[in-house]
Amino acid sequence: MRDELERLARTGVRPDWSMVLMDLDLPGTSGIEATRQIKRDLPHLPVVILTVFEEPATILEAITAGADGYLVKRTPVRDLLSQLRAIASGGAPLTPGVARTILSFIRNGSRSPAGSGEPAHLDLTAREQEVLRLLVQGLAYKDVAQSLGISLDTARSHVRAIYSKLQVHGVAAAVARAIRDKLV
Amino acid sequence: MRDELERLARTGVRPDWSMVLMDLDLPGTSGIEATRQIKRDLPHLPVVILTVFEEPATILEAITAGADGYLVKRTPVRDLLSQLRAIASGGAPLTPGVARTILSFIRNGSRSPAGSGEPAHLDLTAREQEVLRLLVQGLAYKDVAQSLGISLDTARSHVRAIYSKLQVHGVAAAVARAIRDKLV
DNA sequence: TCAAAAGTCGCATGATCATGCGATAGCGCC
DNA sequence: GGCGCTATCGCATGATCATGCGACTTTTGA
Which of B39, B71, B102 to mutate to test binding with chain A, by most A CBs within 10 Å of its CB? Predict the structure, then answer.
C-alpha cells in the first residue's frame, strides 16, 4: 500500500479510482495514520472514513488527519451512495450523528486531542477519559452512551469509576476537576 | 415573529410544528439573531438553517448561535427531506458543502470570528454569578442554597436563569462554560 | 498461563436535577 | 405610577443522577 502510494505520487499517474474509502476497523496500523499518509502523498485524493466508530475523539482525529468525510457503517446504503456523490461536487459527506458531534466541538471551541500538552490522566483509563471529556462537553449520560455506542449502564459504570478516582461526587465537581487539572 | 415566540415561551403551548426552518435571507433583522432567540426561549425546538449563503463566517455564526443544522437551498428536495429526518434521531443535518467548510474550521482550530456577530453578552447578574461559582465548586443545589442563605427553590430559579443565558441544559455544561469562558 | 485490569451490561432505589407555571416585593426609570 | 428587572419562594412532575451489588468477556502483563 505504502509503495503503491509512493509510485503514484512519483509518476503522477492518475489512479483508476477517484476516492478512498478508509476503514478504521483495521488490525494493526491505524486507519488514521493511513489517512495521514495518503493526504500527504496525494493531497487531492479524497479520503472518506467508513467505520463503526462514533467516538468524538476518533472523529476529530480523522478530520485533523485530513479525512474529507466521515460515514458510519449503519448508514443505509441508499443514503451512503448519495453522500459519497457529494464529494464529486466538492462537498464533504458526514452522517448526521457525526455532524452533531462536530457541531458540538465547534460550539465548545474545539481543542485538538493530539495537541500540545498531554493530559495528566490521573489513573483514568482511556475509556474513562473519553467519558469525562464528553461530560465536560455537557452531554447527559444517555448522550455519552450513544456517542460511544455503549449502554446507559456502562456509561454509569465509567462515571462511577471516574468519581472514585477523582474523589468527587457529582458531575459538576468532576467537570471542574477535569478542566482545572487539564485531565482532558 | 418575536411576539409569537414570546407567546409560545410564555404559554408553553406546543406549536403544531416540530422544528424551525430558518431562512437567513431575511430583510433587516438577522436570522442568526432570531436563531439565538429561539434557542434561548425554546431550547428543544430544533432550528435548521436553510439559506443560499455559504460563506464560512455565516455558517460558523449560525452554528455558534445554536443552529442544529445548516442546509443550502440548492439541495435537491429529496435529499433535503432525508436530511431533515435526521434531526428526529438526534442527528444534525448538514449539506456536504457546509460540512466541508466546517471540517476546515476544525482542522484549523476554530475560534469565533470576532467580527460580525456579537460575542453573545453573558450578562449574569451578581447573584447568578455567585450561584454559578458555587456550582463550579461542585456543590449541590441544597448546599448552594444553604451557602447563600436562600431556599432550594430560589437556587433553582437562579440556575434556571443561568442555563437560559448560557444556553446550556445541565450543570456539567454550565460549569464547563463558566471555567472556559472565565465567567467566574 | 493465570490473575488482574478494563470494559461491558443489568437491576434497583433514593437523591437530585430540569423545567413549567405561578406569585410577591423592592428598585430604578421614564 | 406604571414598567421592567432582580430576587425571592413555592409546587409539581418527569428525567437524570448516584450508588450498591453482581456478572460476563476481553485484554494485558508478570
Answer: B102
State how far the Cα of B184 lies from the Cα of B178, in Å rounded to an integer: 6
Which residues in A lie closer than 8 A to residue B64 (C-beta atoms)? 106-107
Cα–Cα nearest to B162, from B176, B147, B143, B148: B176
Considering the entire predicted model, what is its pTM?
Answer: 0.58
Query: A68 to chain B, minimum CA–CA distance in Å?
Result: 7
Provide the angle, in degrees to the nearest 10, between the axes of the packed helices A152-166 and A141-148: 110
Please report the number of interchain residue pairs, chain A to chain B, with beta-carbon separation below 8 angstroms. Answer: 141
DSSP H helices in chain A: 2-11, 31-41, 56-64, 77-86, 96-107, 126-136, 141-148, 152-166, 171-180
DSSP 3-state of A14: coil
Chain A residues within 8 A of B144 when measuring between CB atoms = none
Q: Are A111 and A136 in contact, with CB atoms under 8 Å apart?
A: no
Distance of CA A58 to the CA centre of its chain: 2
| Residue owning grid cell 437551498 | B73
Convert the pLDDT of each residue in A128-163 to its tens digit. Answer: 988 998 888 888 888 889 888 899 999 999 998 888
Q: Which nucleotide is nearest to A144 (CA to C1')?
A: D16
